[in-house]
Design a protein that fits this description.
The protein has about 375 residues and is of the alpha+beta class. It is about 30% helix and about 15% strand. The protein has a single domain, classed as DD-peptidase/beta-lactamase superfamily (Beta-lactamase, 3-Layer(aba) Sandwich), CATH 3.40.710.10. The longest helix is centred in the C-terminal third of the chain and has 16 residues.
């Protein structure tokens, strides 16, 4: 796989831009200056050592900039807009959900298929009721998270353990955000397509969208361009160049819930494809109706904001801020990453940070995310607030 990726890097040295950069089209550019102040202040307050951000509006890249450094150490390298970040749970939408959407478009997957019909080992009380739709909406009844990495090693061993895990709730009755459900989605995709997830992402997403730095298990030659994450007690060292999530680490770095690395430049292309209603560079990546289906709140559980794989904007206290439309959809990652896409206002925002450096106990980013999205929306909308 590393050889394939290296060839891919060499063959695709030019990234076709998602949009042209033209800040002159921003109605209220002063709010982008406020955004810069906000991010610099967040770094001063130690919310994260550094970040990179990109903003698209009406088909143009209106803001793309990096701030801060890899770590808090003196002489630490500066973060650049092509610096590579561990996406953590943003993997769930960029890799797993989007691949699911493509197989759905191909007629190779249906949302109400039973998991047990695809993965017969998925056994236990009420498990015969669990569908792909349940997994994608986090209503399967599976636990949210288990520390598999303490006792298990290897992808198939962990998947078997999930297959043997009893449900905590009857399927379709309770919302519990579940990494385990997205690992099962990985197994379903790999079973249907007969390829590993990292190869599916390469074939269906990274290569068609020219996302040359969106990969699992980045090659060691890229180490100086990868932003480090946590000083890990479990690893007993700095996590740098390999996945931060421990369960994904013992799965070989490739999982349906975490493990993907990327840049704001690559994710700008990805987000613009969604705003283009599935088209990019005259290629159809996703059908229009599939995007609408998967990014629409499912309302299976009262109060849940979940669409299919994607999350949607909550009415109050949303990390997407106060001004994105209720059609906005996105996702966040534990390491300090977010993408939000607002089709009604033709806006996307990609914010990548390493807020877990040096420790995951730092949660200051929760105050930064809504401010970032509010400044972006104030820059593009006539909001008297």
């Amino acid at each position: 796989m590393h050889k394939v990726l290296l060839i891919f890097f060499l063959l695709n040295i030019l990234l076709i831009p998602a949009q042209s950069k033209d800040q002159g089209n921003v109605p209220y550019p002063q709010y982008l200056d406020s955004l810069k102040i906000c991010l610099n202040q967040a770094i001063s307050d130690s919310a994260f050592p550094g970040c990179a951000i990109s903003v698209g509006y009406r088909g143009k890249l209106i803001f793309e900039q990096s701030f801060g450094t890899f770590t808090y150490k003196p002489q630490s390298p500066k973060i650049e807009v092509n610096s590579i970040f561990d996406l953590a749970s943003v993997t769930k939408v960029v890799a797993t959900t989007t691949t699911t959407m493509i197989l759905y478009d191909q007629g190779r997957l249906q949302l109400d298929w039973k998991v047990i019909d695809i993965v017969p080992a998925f056994q236990g009380k009420d498990k015969e009721k669990v569908t792909i739709r349940h997994l994608l909406t986090h209503t399967s009844g599976l636990p949210g998270w288990i520390r598999f990495y303490l006792d298990l090693n290897g992808k198939e061993r962990i998947i078997q353990e999930i297959c043997d895990t009893e449900l905590e709730n009857e399927p379709g009755t309770t919302y519990v955000y579940s990494d385990l459900g997205m690992i099962m989605m990985q197994k379903i995709l790999e079973t249907i397509a007969q390829k590993p997830l990292d190869q599916l992402v390469l074939d269906y997403i990274s290569i068609p969208l020219y996302m040359k730095r969106t990969i699992y298990n980045p090659d060691s030659s890229l180490i100086n361009e990868i932003v480090p994450t946590e000083i890990s007690e479990w690893h007993k060292k700095l996590v740098h160049g390999f996945v931060h999530d421990e369960n994904t680490y013992v799965m070989g770095g490739i999982s349906g819930h975490a493990g993907l690395f990327s840049t704001v430049q690559d994710l700008s292309v990805f987000c613009q494809m969604y705003l283009n209603r599935g088209l990019y560079d005259n290629k159809r990546i996703l059908k229009i109706e599939t995007i609408e289906l998967f990014t629409t709140r499912q309302n299976l559980i009262e109060g849940s904001t979940r669409a299919l794989g994607w999350d949607t904007r909550s009415e109050q206290n949303s990390m997407a801020g106060d001004f994105m439309s209720m059609r906005a959809f996105g996702h966040s990652g534990f390491t300090g990453t977010t993408i939000w896409i607002d089709p009604e206002n033709e806006v996307f925002v990609v914010l990548l940070t390493n807020r877990v450096h040096p420790t995951r106990e730092n949660r200051k980013i929760s105050r930064v995310r809504p401010k970032v999205h509010n400044y972006v929306m104030k820059a593009v909308l006539d909001i008297e607030k």
